[in-house]
Write a structure and sequence with these properties.
single chain, alpha+beta, Neuraminidase, 3 helices, 24 strands, 23% helix, 33% strand
């Protein structure tokens, strides 16, 4: 016998609606939970049967299943709520269908909005260097199993491939003070890297050094006459690295340190090492510290430079650091506590007094802070994060004048997606 909803009291109708909400909540919770169990079971079965090579995704498969099941539950739960209530409130078949369609459509749109807001970035870009006059920026793009250097004209935003090197791995680029030459590393196997030298046309590309070695992070000196670089040293490949220098013709190579800096120990470098203008000091940026080494007295213990930053997190987080043009200060990017997480800004600090001047404000999450060889310009990436998980889903290239602190957002096009 059909129920006449007009005979139901208001408390009874409210109770039906609340029961419907409980049913919807159960669906929203149970669907991801079941998906989590299925994902974990599939992971264990895959590990046993070796069906698919999932890589790092295998560790997160259950959570991934549960996450997307939750998105589905956002749609299914409200539909269950409506159907539950419509039946017990004795709505007509037409009202039931119209309501079901409307609820499903509304929450499908909500689900798509959430999914779109959580979509992480797909193209992998990292900034390498900026010319001292700010005319162009070098960026590395790694779309699929390789990496290439691109030159971005700041006046037009046009991005073009720097060299015509064959398939391989290009990176660690640095620009000469006059903006006419680029030094970078190249490898065809991502293990043994060679330093290359080229002009801005990218047509006159050649190895810098005649001798072999696994070399990385070339940096022009301020006068443009020397290139500093790191070379793998130690009794075994990958045991450590040290600082070397060479003339632009690559004929004279000088070893400057015997520290065997470790990639996996302390310090783990976050950015290319920086050498002072007079060549007397080496500055290394690790994740939680800045360290100064004397190149004039190699037996001297390094100095850990700990700047007092406003709202600094419990453990410092540095992006990269450089000497100022007069070598009196250190310019760097580091994290501070913000209302929505860490905020990264550029600072100028005196390593003696530890006094700090803030150069930028309200960057939010930022990365790839790169200062030009002459110290006049800098670039960094300012990131847009997803709505809920706070995953990187977009970025904007920022060009900064180090004298005034003025930051200009740049648009560009031409990098592979």
């Amino acid at each position: 016998m059909a129920i006449d909803s007009s005979n139901l009291s208001i408390p009874r109708k409210i109770l039906i609606i609340l029961y419907g909400l409980l049913a919807a909540a159960a669906v929203v919770l149970l669907v991801p939970l079941c998906a989590l169990v299925v994902g974990i079971a599939f992971t264990f079965a895959n590990q046993t049967m070796h069906w698919f090579d999932l890589g790092e995704t295998e560790s997160w498969l259950g959570i991934i299943f549960a996450l997307y099941a939750l998105y589905a539950g956002i749609v299914i739960g409200p539909v269950v709520w409506w159907r539950f209530c419509a039946k017990r409130l004795a709505l007509s078949q037409r009202q039931n269908k119209i309501g079901t369609t409307a609820v499903a459509a509304i929450f499908a749109i909500v689900c798509l909005w959430v999914l779109h807001g959580e979509q992480a970035i797909t193209n992998n870009i990292s900034l390498e260097a900026v010319a001292d006059d700010g005319r162009f920026v070098l960026a590395q793009s790694s779309p699929s199993g390789s990496s290439a250097l691109y030159k971005i004209e700041t006046s037009t935003g046009a991005a073009s491939r720097l060299t015509s090197m064959p398939s391989g791995y290009e990176g660690d680029a640095t620009i000469s003070p006059d903006g006419l030459q680029v030094a970078f590393t190249y490898s065809n196997d991502e293990r043994n890297h060679t330093i290359m030298l080229t002009d801005l046309s990218g047509k006159n590309t050649k190895p810098l050094l005649r001798e072999g070695g696994n070399d990385s992070w070339p940096q022009f000196s301020r006068d443009g006459k020397t290139i500093y670089f790191m070379r793998t040293t130690g009794v075994a490949s990958g045991a450590g690295f040290d600082l070397f220098s060479t003339s632009l013709d690559g004929k004279i190579v000088t070893r400057l340190t015997h520290q065997h800096f470790s990639f996996n120990g302390g310090p783990y470098l976050q950015a290319a090492p920086a050498v002072s203008s007079d060549g007397s000091q080496l500055l290394l940026t690790s994740n939680d510290s800045l360290r100064l080494y004397s190149l004039a007295s190699l037996n001297q213990q390094p100095t850990s430079v700990a700047f007092r930053l406003p709202n600094s997190p419990p453990s410092p987080l540095y992006v990269s650091a450089y000497f100022s043009p007069d070598d009196r200060n250190i310019v760097f990017m580091a994290a501070a506590e913000g209302k929505d997480g860490y905020e990264y800004d550029a600072y100028r600090g005196d390593p003696t007094s530890r006094d700090v001047q803030r150069i930028t404000n309200n960057n939010g999450y930022a990365s790839d802070f790169r200062v030009s060889t002459g110290g006049k310009k800098a670039v960094f990436l300012k990131w847009k994060l997803s709505r809920f998980q706070k995953l990187p889903r977009g970025f904007q290239l920022q060009l900064m004048d180090m004298q005034s602190g003025t930051v200009i957002p740049l648009r560009f096009a031409g990098l592979p997606q």
